[in-house]
Write a structure and sequence with these properties.
Helix content: 10-25%
Oligomer: single chain
Distance between the termini: 108 Å
Structural class: alpha+beta
Shape: globular
Largest sheet: 6 strands, antiparallel
Number of strands: 31
Radius of gyration: 28 Å
């Protein structure tokens, strides 16, 4: 009995400490955001808790309308951020403040900046980063490319090694940047695919009958995840040209997941997924993919769990990838039924996060018709814990209340998820097809809230307002171990977490040296003659002749 009581106390203590760490870090993020936006240096109350960097006074910093498209934890105390419009990758780290005698006075500093735009020397093509993935040795960016007088958009994967990013001048010409045309890579894979797939057979039939590759449309979801060992997963579909009959419209084929291998420089695996895309094209539906890499005792990755969603269905596709890159057959989990009177708002993407290795959290936006082309909106989050027995794959759904629109879910270590939401001050009523207004130029201001949920108990443990009076969504957050980072659009960077706080602890040797140098500086100096006394003749302008 005593041993059981001790185990229970240790369990409660561990849970409390995990709660405290998550709440402390979120509060520190709020303080860092305030420091960036108010252009204030770290105060005594926040020193040691958070580091912030404002871009306003930085040379070559991101400028409006640029924004942070993705952020990943590079290593403890180091953060990699991708900025969309200028196609730059920037590495931020903790460093001592210049000319400071306090060894614990640290700042967030930009360490490396690389422009990876393969078309930076031409104005005919514009490249934009839409997602960032990072594995043990490589950096991968998913990009959209627009070309003058060309209607179709191209999708690229830009690959470079961590080492080249740190020490090399990154460019395709120098061999330090690998540029992959995803659309072409998918078509090449379909031409060489020797498996059995009805959609691929229809594609081959089209080519055999004289069809041309440039007549096909390839739709790539604007998300990509790293699966370890140089493998990257994307979600895509394609459609064949329709006939001339008005009754036969073109429709995309069933969505597939593709694994791209950086070593092979090509797609190596294709697999069906049972997602209900309906009449929406994959690009428009913005289907998402998320991944949690599982590791062995030695820390090397050996597989991952992935999940896919689309905003037109509450179902969830879950699968896994082993160390050889083989995809285990994905399973479809049906979500909870939509509340009576509500329907899914298919214009809003479904944010998703994988917490730990198996807990999956998904957010949904719902709308209810009120008449006269007006709708009422609300948001929910659902918790899934998939198992091998499909009958046990139940979910639990929580209602977040009115006026809240979930924008992003962030895995906050092993047992917590951070829900970033817009809180609208006015009732969440709008016109059909629009979230909170009758036109695209909605001037409604809102507040940005961060809500932390404990996933094992599905309980909210903290809620805080991060920003007020916003007209856009400016925050991208990443968490890994004891490092937490927040990218604020084009405004700046915030770093916090236990690993960041540890660098503020005074080093005894540095402390002794700083105290010794300050003591020497306080020694009494010798008197120097006062200036401003009576000037001699030469000083008064007299010449040598007198």
């Amino acid at each position: 009995v005593e041993q059981k009581n001790v185990d229970t106390k240790l369990k409660y203590r561990k849970t409390f400490l995990s709660h405290y760490s998550a709440v402390r870090d979120l509060e520190a993020v709020k303080s860092g955001i305030t420091n960036v936006l108010t252009k204030k240096r770290t105060t005594d109350t926040t020193r040691g808790e958070v580091l912030s960097k404002s871009f306003d006074s930085s040379k070559d910093a991101p400028q409006y309308p640029n924004f942070c498209a993705g952020i990943k934890i590079w290593s403890p105390n180091q953060v990699l951020a991708a900025y969309s419009y200028d196609c730059t990758l920037r590495l931020f780290t903790t460093a001592e403040r210049s000319h400071s005698s306090d060894a614990s006075d640290k700042v967030c500093r930009e360490l490396v900046c690389q422009n990876i735009d393969p078309y930076k020397n031409t104005k005919k093509k514009a490249c934009q980063i839409v997602d960032l993935a990072l594995d043990e040795t490589q950096i991968a960016c998913l990009c959209r490319v627009r070309e003058e007088n060309v209607e179709k958009e191209a999708t690229l994967i830009l690959l470079l090694t961590r080492e080249d990013f740190l020490v090399s001048d990154v460019s395709e010409e120098k061999g330090t940047l690998q540029v992959i045309d995803v659309n072409q890579a998918i078509l090449n894979f379909l031409l060489e695919y020797d498996g059995v797939d009805d959609d691929q057979l229809e594609f081959i039939s089209f080519i055999s009958s004289g069809g041309k590759l440039d007549e096909l449309e390839v739709w790539v979801s604007q998300s990509m995840v790293a699966c370890g060992h140089g493998l990257y997963m994307i979600h895509a579909s394609w459609e064949l040209p329709g006939s001339d009959s008005d009754d036969d419209e073109t429709q995309p084929v069933s969505p597939k997941i593709f694994l791209f291998s950086s070593g092979a420089g090509a797609i190596v695996v294709m697999h069906d997924v049972d997602t209900d895309v309906g009449v929406l094209r994959l690009y428009e539906s913005r289907a998402l993919a998320s991944s949690a890499v599982t590791r062995d005792n030695r820390g090397s990755s050996y597989g991952c769990v992935f999940a896919l969603t689309t905003p037109v269905s509450r179902s969830l596709v879950i699968g896994s990838i082993d160390s050889n890159g083989a995809i285990h057959t994905p399973t479809t989990i049906e979500g909870a039924p939509v509340e009576e009177g509500f329907t899914l708002c298919d214009r809003i993407k479904r944010p998703m996060a994988i917490v730990g290795t198996r807990q999956i959290v998904v957010a949904d936006a719902l709308m209810k018709h009120l008449g006269n082309d007006k709708y009422h909106y609300m948001s929910t989050i659902s918790f899934y814990c998939p198992s091998t027995d499909t009958s046990d794959n139940a979910s639990e759904t929580l209602d977040l209340g009115d006026n809240l629109e979930v924008i992003k879910l962030v895995s906050f270590r092993e047992e917590h998820v951070l829900v970033l939401c817009r809180f609208h001050k006015e009732p969440a009523i709008g016109f059909a097809g629009h979230w909170f207004g009758p036109n695209d130029e909605d001037d409604t201001l809102y507040s940005l809230y961060g809500i932390i949920f404990h996933t094992p108990t599905k309980t909210m443990i903290h809620r805080v307002c991060l920003l007020n009076d916003l007209d856009t969504f400016p925050v991208t957050i990443a968490v890994d171990g004891g490092t937490v980072a927040a990218g604020l659009f084009w405004k700046g960077m915030v770093m916090t977490g236990e690993e960041v706080r540890q660098v503020h602890q005074k080093d005894p040797k540095k402390t002794d040296q700083s105290e010794l140098s300050s003591a020497k500086a306080k020694k009494k100096k010798k008197k120097t003659p006062k200036k401003g006394g009576k000037k001699d003749g030469f000083a008064r302008g007299m010449s040598l002749r007198g």
